[in-house]
Queue: 2 jobs
Job 1
Amino acid sequence: MLQLAVLASGNGSNFQAILDKIGEGHLQAQVRLLLCNKSNAYALERAKAAGIPSLFLDPADFVDADGKPDRPSFDMAMVQAIKAAGADTVALAGYMRLLTSGFLEAFAGRVINIHPAILPSFAGLRGAADAQAYGVTITGCTVHLVDEKVDHGAIIIQAAVPSIQGESLEELKNRIHAVEHRIYPQALQWFAEGRLYEEGRTIRLKAAVPEKECIISDGSWLVQPPLERGF
Ligand code: GRF
C-alpha cells in the first residue's frame, strides 16, 4: 500500500482523481497528507471534504537574512511534515514550485509528477497553452519521475490527445485533464505494485496483464503503456 503525500497549488482535480480511485478500490494507496503552498488552493477544500489531513505552508514564512525566498528551508519543512504524516511517496498534483535537491534526496526515486503535454515538448508552467499556441495537432499528458530539472525525469506513461482546430484553450485543457485523471492514478498503482523499473532513463513496466484487459485508446486519445482494468 502506497503511503502518499500529495502536493498541490491550485484546483486539485488530479488529487481528487487519486482519492476517487482509492475510494473505488483500484488504487492501493492512502493519502496521509495534502500539502499546499497557497492558502486559497481549492485542493485544501477537497482534502477537508474527504477527511484527509492537510497543511498549508506559507513560503513567505521561509526567507533568508536578505528577505529572499529560502527554498531549502521551505522544502525541509515539507519533508518533516510528510515524514511525520507517515508518507514515503510524493505525488505532485499541480504543484507550481521547483523542488530542491534536499527534498528529492529525502524521497529518492519516489517523487512523481503529471504534466499537461507530451514531454520533452512544452515543459514548464504552461504546457497545454504553449502546445496550442505553437500549433501542434497532437498534444497530451505525461506522468514522470521528478528530478532537479523542470519536467525532466524518466517517463512512466504518456497519453496523446488531439488539439482540435478552433477549440478554446479551456476546451483543450479539459480534454487533457480528463485523461490525466486516468493515467495518474494508473501510474501510482503501478508504483504501488512495484511493477516499474528503470533501464537508464527508460521506465519499464513488469508483467503487463493480458492485452484484453487493457485500454490503449477510446478513439479520442491514445495511451502507452495501456491502461489496465479500473483506470
Ligand atoms: C494539471 O494539468 C497538471 O498536469 C499540471 O497542473 C495541472 C493541475 O491541475 N501539473 P489540477 O490542480 O490537478 O486540476
Note: The longest helix spans residues 169-192.
Job 2
Amino acid sequence: MIVLGIETSCDDTSVAVVKDGVDVLSSVISSQVKLHAPHGGTVPELGARKHVENIIPVYKEAIEIAGILPEDIDRIAVTNTPGLRPSLNVGISFAEGLAKQLNKPLVYINHVYAHGYSLMLHSDNYTPPCYPIILLIVSGGHTQLGIANSPLNFKIIGETIDDAAGECFDKVARMLNLPYPGGPVIDKISNEGDETLIVFPRPLMKEDHYNFSFSGLKTAVKYYIRDKNLVPTIEETDNYETEISRFHTIDIAASFQEAVVDVLVEKTVRLAKEREIPRIGVAGGVSANSRLRHKMIQSGDNNEIGVFFPAMKYCMDNAAMVGGLGNFIES
Ligand code: KG4
Ligand code: ZN
C-alpha cells in the first residue's frame, strides 16, 4: 500500500510517500527555521502562512521523487494533533481536499505516535526493533516514557510535569544567547565543553516513579548565569554589562546537557530493567542529540539492552513517520 504522509504541526512543511509502512520512497521537508529564527521561536501565524505557500510545491516534489502518479496513492495520512492549530489546519485542509479530488481514504495521525513509529522506518544500515519496546519520546513539545506494544499501542508510564526536554534545550540556549533552535547548537558546542565543570541538578532522577521535570534545571542554569554575572539573559539584557566568554558558554551548555541526558538515560534504562524488556527506542527531535545517543547506548550495553534511534533524517518532524503510521490505521 502506498500512503501519502502530510505533516505541518509546527515549523516544517513535509510530505512523504511511504510503501507498506516501512519503505520511504520520498520525504520532502521545507524548514521554516530561517523565518522564525529572528523571533527566537516559532510564530504560529507566520508559520501557518508559510505552510500555505509551501504545501503544494512540497507535495509535487514528493510525488516526483517517489516516481509515482497521484492516482497511485492508496491512502492519505495527515497529522491532526497535537501541534499549533493554525499550522495543523493547513495540512488538514490540503489533505481533505486532495482526498476528495483523488477519491482516496484519509486517516488522521497523532504526531507523538508518529514520532514513536519513526523507529520502524527502513533506512541504510538500520534494523528496526521488534515490539514490545521501552519507548522514550523527547521533542520540543513532549517528554513521554512508556511501553510500545505495537505502532498504535503506547502505554505511557511517565511524562514531564512541566517543560519538555527539547523546550528546555531551547530556553537554555536563549539564556546563553545562542541561535534558535537551541538544541542542535547546544549539542554541537558541548562537544568541546567540560560537562563536569558545573553540577546542575538532575530533577526527579532518583525518585521511584517515571515522571520528569525540567523546569527547575532551566532555572538552575538561569541562576548560575545571573549569580556569576556572566551573560545577559534575553529578558534582562539591559541590566548586564559583561559578556560571557565563549569558553564558559560551552562549559555551561555541556554541563546542562549532561544533566538532561543523565535523567533521561537513568529512568529509561531503569524502566527497561524493571519490565524486563531488553529493547529501548528513543524518538523525537532530541533523539538527534549526540550525547544522549552515546550515553543511552553505553548504558544499554552495560545492561544487555538493545538501544535504537531513528535515522537522523527521521528524528525531527517529518512526514515519513506520518505516512508510515498511516499504514496501520483503519480507514
Ligand atoms: O520533534 P521535533 O522536531 O518537534 C516537536 O515535535 O517538538 O523536536 C524539536 C526539538 C527542539 O526543541 C530542538 O531544539 C530539539 O528537538 N533538538 C535537539 C537536537 N536536535 C533537535 N535537542 C538536543 N540536541 C539535538 N541535537
Ligand atoms: Zn515533533
Note: The longest strand covers residues 23-31.
